[in-house]
Amino acid sequence: MELQKLHGDASNRVYYRGKDTDGKSYVLMQLPEGNASVSEEITNLKKTGKELPFLNIGSYLKNCGLPVPEVYHYDEPSRQITLEDLGDLPLEKLLQQAGETEKMKWYQRAIDLLIRFQNCPRPLDNSCLLFERSFDARLYNWEFDHFLEYGIEERFSFKLKSDETDLFHQETKKITAALVELPLGPTHRDFQSRNLMVQGETLRLIDFQDALLGPAVYDLVALLRDSYISLAEENVQRLLDYYLERSTSPPSKNHLHFKKMFDWMTIQRKLKDVGRFIYIDRVKKNPNFLPFISPSLGYVRTALERQPELSSLFVLLKKYVPEFK
């Protein structure tokens, strides 16, 4: 049986497309040797189970009616999962060729799907790993430090002065303190255009194995501040309003505060992304994400310019981040 290797991402998983004897296409996910199910990014997982997070969370989402790929078979000894083939059209590719009206239609569909995801209830038997880990201060601060280590010090080969490091921690912990006060709910953790597959007029959800409890604004930032797609600022605000009109989650009750937290989460998430992109280049020897550093930092700059409470952080970053000068 012939297998065609598919274009990979930043993970250690490898994907192939194949066909069975009846000509039906499927995707084979090959997990790496060792502790294949563990994310490289930390979580506060309260318990572990024998089931792979991808299978555990995927089964839960399917039971919630979410459009995740069908799992046909899991071969544990060979660490292979056979999945439904969702095709070759991620939302990213469609958006790159779409006009503004078409873009807005698809973003609205993505937001509708996100709201469905966020409304998934906790299972009565506490069987889903999603509900056993969450964003907390330790995780937010780890991601900020990941940017400091790779987004500045590794990127430019120097160490910040101790007083500057202290200021960075002081200002980023201010952001963390605000974010940990937000209510928690189901969070995909990477709800962006490369993880939404287009099938006809609908979207299918992939790459959900790192899902956890987090604030509603987190996945919205991942979608609307996508490093891979440029979206006009006025359309970002229109889509925020679209979300707020339809969401029933608690943060939507105070729209001004929600939009402020959208900016603060943008700073947190996109700085973390820059750190990851450089980490993937320097440690994994994969430079494919380096072109997305500049748009990611552009989002951070836009958010910082709107948030005078964070001016000290902005001034500090301007000294070392050329995209801010």
Mean pLDDT: 91
Report on the biggest sheet: 5 strands, antiparallel
**Count of DSSP-assigned helices:** 10
SSE pattern, N- to C-terminal: EEEHEEHHHHEEEEHHHHH
Please state the CA-atom Rg, rounded to the nearest Å. 20 Å
Poorly predicted tracts of residues? none
Structural class: alpha+beta
Strand content: 5-15%
Number of beta-strand segments = 9
Q: How are strands sequenced across the largest beta sheet?
A: 1-2-3-5-4
Q: Quote the distance from N terminus to C terminus.
A: 55 Å
Helix residue percentage: 40-55%
Shape: globular
Name some characteristics of this structure.
325 residues; alpha+beta; five-stranded antiparallel beta sheet; two-stranded antiparallel sheet; 10 helices
Molecular structure report:
By secondary structure, this protein is α+β, with helices and mostly antiparallel strands. It has 10 helices and 9 strands. The strands form 3 sheets. A 5-stranded antiparallel sheet has the order 1-2-3-5-4, with no helix packed on it. A hairpin with a 4-residue loop joins strand 4 and strand 5. Helix 4 packs antiparallel against helix 5 (162-179) and helix 4 crosses helix 8 (255-282). The longest helix is centred in the last third of the chain and has 28 residues, at 255-282. The N and C termini lie far apart (55 Å). The model has no long low-confidence stretch (mean pLDDT 91).
